[in-house]
Fold each of these.
Amino acid sequence: MPISLPILFILITVMIDSMGIGLIMPVMPDLIREVGGGDLARAATWGGVLATAFAVMQFLFGPVVGNLSDRFGRRPVLLIALGVMVLDYLVMAVAGALWLLLLGRIIGGITAATHSTANAFMADVSRPADKAANFGLIGAAFGIGFVIGPLLGGVLGQFGTRAPFYAAAALAAANMTFGCLVMPETVTDRIRRPFSRARANPFGAFANIGALPGIGRMLVLFFLYEVAFFAYPAIWAYFTRARFGWEPGMVGVSLAAFGISIAIVQGGLIRLILNRLGDRRTLIAGIGFNILAFAAMAVVTSGTVALILTPLTAIGSVAEPALRGMMSRIAPDDAQGELQGVLSSVAAIAMILAPLMMTQTFAMFTGPSAPFYMPGAPFAVSALLMLAGGAVFLSRPRGKAKSR
């Protein structure tokens, strides 16, 4: 499918969404200390509170936003979300109290519609056979933003703790203007669905989407995949310091290599794999590759080997868009937003649980009372989670799933 202006807008939106997270990460410790005082430990505690508040709101309101986009359309929901994102960054840029930072993260979590609505838009404009590959484009855009964001945030942070927030607000405002000019509405009267409060809460939405044939086990797999993959952002800096003695610069280089590799895999390589294997076999291959990659990371002792493995592990990321593609083809046209909202909520649950699970596992196997020294233990947990997810997915026949 050619990259039209509306699709370019969607990809830029996802990239800016990803960049916005990375832009503010380098300055958050200093900003929290500047606003609330205290030492680095207190700043880290508040940083955890802010991140958790964002994830909880995303879990609660993801289905609401998804259902709103099924009723009122992708265009107004996405543009309003971008507008609120601009205001959110500006509030955090001028915040003089911790409660304002917390309010900003709560609002940001509520309106975190960009990613799920972008996926719903992509589902609307894609032929069934192209959905997985086009979801891969969104994954590629996210990967590019993942690389650019922290680099740009680190540079802007030299001009003050507020500079990255103003930059993020300016990027979101420019993209909202671009969207106003080029984005069409893809929700027609044929697929428009009345808004239902019963389906807009997370539990009602889970029940409705989970009742579709084959979707329930796919949601379980999606959750386990998200938790497993969170091992990278949760413990990578700690793992590489403990195992290889890497400094922050090398950690940043390795994460950049990982982000670039995901962009290459999901933006281009996945189309070749899907054309050869189809969605279902691509998903199974991705699960298998992830199991091997996580197991290798669990036991690797050479920093050079780890650098070689880092981009190779990105190949396993073909599983996520293939899984999204299969679920999108099962869900009816008038529930694409609801599906993506549910997936946003699932990812939010993983975002809440995974950091605690991974960091506690790391501490358990590196602390003074560790049964044996194994900094890569969280990756072993990830391998087991992927194995469990594969078993759940393969435990029943395909049923009515329309996969090739």
Amino acid sequence: MSRQIVVAIGGVSAMLSLSIGMRQSFGLFMAPITQAIGLNTTEYTLAIAVQNMAWGLTAPFIGWLCDRFGSLGVMIIGALLYAAGLIVTIHATGVGTLLLGTGVLVGLALSCTGSSIAMSIAARVTHENRRSTVLGLVTGLGSLGTFLAAPMAQQLMASEGWKAALWSFTALALLMLPFAVMAGAVDRSTSGRSAGQPVAALLPVLIQASTHRGYVVTALAFFVCGLQLVFITTHLPNYLSICGQDPMLGAQAIAVLGGFNVIGACVFGWLGGRYPKHLLLGGVYIARSMAVALYFLVPPTPASTLIFASAMGFLWLGVVPLVNGLVAQMFGLRFMATLTGLAFLNHQLGSFLGAWGGGMIFDAFGSYDMAWRFGVLIGLVAGLAQMLMPSPHPRG
């Protein structure tokens, strides 16, 4: 690889690591923030749900901007929005300001600094023969932030309070700026990008995607991915707390998720270059559902929680190189960020339901039993549908 490619991949991996690491840790703040400003679980999880919807609704548009004009400006704006959202959250006085900060601003920031943009950059600078492996590597490196951010936040909350933890996250958001500049080096090349093309050039691709069975199945199954993952990151710390476990266990579980993400993303990225991606994806969804069912059937212990976190971490972000690789295989690179952004919108619809729906179920019934059972059922359905989709034919 050339030096420019290494710099771009290193920059986008570091930016993704910080962005997703902080995002995966918001569940740790549920108890201290709700107690401090007088909210209930449903109101806090509504902010997380809005965050995911803001991310999902803007992802296709942000992807199109990157496809047409380049990614550097988008990523810089995203880092600044992230910092602004965290500052608004620190000064939140009620559900309205929490929805603005944690919800809208952080959601927009994630759309500009998250996986769709990172995967598009990595795919654009990588040869097709190595693409799936490199996408897995970037996803894996992008998981390291979760391994570090969650324990750091929990330690700061225990010693200095939740506002100190969010100020540290604000510093991490600003640290994304130099990494965005490194990743933006890819903008010097228009390879695989629709630079200067009018919006009309995208319309035939969107029409084709909307009637392409493989793309539709992949996008719909991605809904289940979002539901399962955001339900766990948002509600697992609270679930452990009501089961009498140490609050640090939630942070440890999220950190373990991040650590095993690195392994799983690299493994599935490598496997995706050698075996049918749709079969691997379906297998991941089914395996996740079985892991959730086994964990929630019995009261949690530290050992069972960390084993569960290890299994889910291994299966967590391995879907990202597989989904992005499938889209590139079906439609090529020209509008990859736009098409993966549209698929990601379905993912975020699931995330919205996983965050807010889980909170409503808990407030209504006093337990998470109905929520995890629903997540297991639709995970099995999505996995089977993904495995039965037609095998995609390679496109340039």
Amino acid sequence: MRFFRSTFEQSIALLLALVIGSLIIVGIGENPIVAYATLLDGAFGSPQRIAGTLLQSTPIMIAGMAACVAFRSGLFNIGVEGQLYMGGFAAALIGFSLPLPWFLHLPLAMIVAVIAGAAWIAVPAFFRARYNANEVVSTILLNYVAVLLTSYFTIFLFKRPGGWSETPPILESSMLPTLFEFSRLNYGLFIGLALAVGLHFYFLRTVSGFESGTMGSNQRYAEYGGVNIRAKIFRMMLVSGAIGGLAGGVETLGVHHRFMEGFAPGFGFDGVIAALLANANPLLTVITALFFGMLRSGSLLLEVDTTMSREIITVLQALIILCVSAQVRIGRRGDATAGERRWKY
């Protein structure tokens, strides 16, 4: 019952954001019905567009899984974008520098991407676990460090001769296979779906997952029940960062086949928003990630067929964040603890 109520409330928040977005679209002289219809057509109007939507949704989905792990444990990993960049660069480095058979090369590149993401969050995880430092501040600041650091490596150390600000292309043995000839959609989609199912059963059917959820609801109660809070915080943040690195590895090995500046603009942040909108439910995060992938993919046609800029999608995302953060509640009045209970799973 609580699951359906939470889903209903999140749907109301999304609907409210779309209504406010419609008013903004009217304000700039466009028809919101036409705008939303164009978005849907751009996202699902043909097999190629559907594949493009799934392609955009894949890194958001995996990044959303990283955020789900942290949120369900009562932690806020806002640094998924930075972990994604570090994982993507690490995968590219292995991909173009080590000639290996495909059955070794691809798994090694993915493993290194996972390790890079976990290593990037290790310092914030340690200080959060040991000194109760605010992980929101430390992880979000490391996003900028990761973006700038990978840019430095790409431009000054590993730049492809005579090319753009990008590394040499990875070897074919490290590439994720594509699903269709007409699209770059790859097996990373199945990795994201498998992660969602695995995390769903982890949180519902395992002792460790129950401990994580209990810690997210009430740390004192979890500690009283025998959970080593410090160790658990450190481990769950490492897992969250590792999945963030995996998202970057999938994007590098399956889509771009190299690392370049701005190779994944905002996928990490979109993943965090998708997890928030899904109330940190891994299966629902798949749906919200698909929604954000639809917005990204459909915005291309929106810019062509209307006078609106694709930046209107950024406005819609901001409205969604605002409405979800506003704790929209139906049928509740005067409950001062509603916001506090919002992230009690």
Amino acid sequence: MTGNCAVILAAGEGTRMKSKKPKVLAEVLFKPMIDWVIDSAKACGMEEENICVVTGHGREQLEAALPQGVQTVVQTERLGTGHAVMQARDFLRAHGSANVLILGGDAPFMDGETVSMALQYHTRANSAATVISADVTDPTGYGRIVRDGNGDFSGITEEKDATEAQKAIREVNSGAYWFNIQALLVALEKMETNAKYRLNAAKEYYLTDAIEILRSMGQRVTTFNSRSEDVVLGANDRDQLAHLNEIARQKVIRRHRLAGVSIPFDTGVIIAPDVRIGRDAEILQGTILKGKTEIGEDAVVGPNSVLENCVIGAGATVTQTYGTDVRVGEKTQVGPFARLRPGTQIGADVRVGNFVEVKNSTVGDGTKISHLSYIGDTDVGRNVNVGSGCATVNFTGKEKFRTTIGDHAFIGCDTSLVAPVRVGDRAYTGAGSTITEDVPDDALALGRARQVIKKDWVKVKNPYRK
């Protein structure tokens, strides 16, 4: 392996989260914090194979959640950030004399732009190490950036070891760094073999001691101020996690508004960071957009719609609808109170109305499924009309079969199509029919019993009638 790489520290348990999952799998806008951090590393041009995650607590669960190709090493003992990076030495050696980005797995707002700009600065300055810093309102708990009388960087002091004067410093270490790999390996070796580097309050190997070692060797160490207080933020409990979610929610909403998306009232609006929305689209109250959902230009979503990994075409309207892993064509109307289930592809200018459920089906352009119907495992043609109360009966109790409905067909109200069955082009089914055999093109199918009337039946059989 060659080129720049990243080591992400993610071995912590996060006991205050009171979760069965590792802390870095806690979600901000439905996306695990570790995924935010990995995306920041990838923004510097790294492929997954050039990213190494240091795991520990919940190792198996975390490794299963990581993107394919990401490397892992294990920190079996929690002996500090320096010790965590030591576990990745073989990974670092494989990358030669390139640079390594060190990130905390629970710092989702250390964004790609910041780390990319820090790399440029690090490279231009020919530094052995660059510390990414930030000025914060409340520095409590963070390592302080200490400077000499000329304002030049002279070191990092952890909160536990800081004097009262140092605790008043507002410029703090974000926990993110760029290192020259060879310089870092030398520093780690010296740290491990010199007992003084564990004579701190926590009796741990601090990664910040690598900075001290490099400076003592005459190596150049610089700082890059991110200009954003948010890059240092993490979450140790659910209350702090909720705070991160609200910060992220407002950032994402603002980004879309500035890009030309109409979000007139953001009450209850939650948009995941990887969602893409076209210009002049409108997102209404109570709408939740998750995963990698894409909304086309001029589309209207909401109020009170939830879409996950959906693609909504330009000019479509999706109202009070729950959809997962579906595609909706241009100018199609969905809802209110519709459910679109995985595997569904709906064409252009379609109407999927109230209390309609569509699952694992294709629906052709111009088709109308207006109300109270279930379409499952079905291929519906173009310009089909499906009446109220229809269902494709796709499950025998053991197996599922598909139904096919041809172009321009008319499915009468309360029709049940028992799969496997095909209704031909331009064919009709009578209201109330149960169709169990294929219907030819241009035919009318009736599958219902003849109406029988029994006069005075109620008087005879209902003793409560007076």
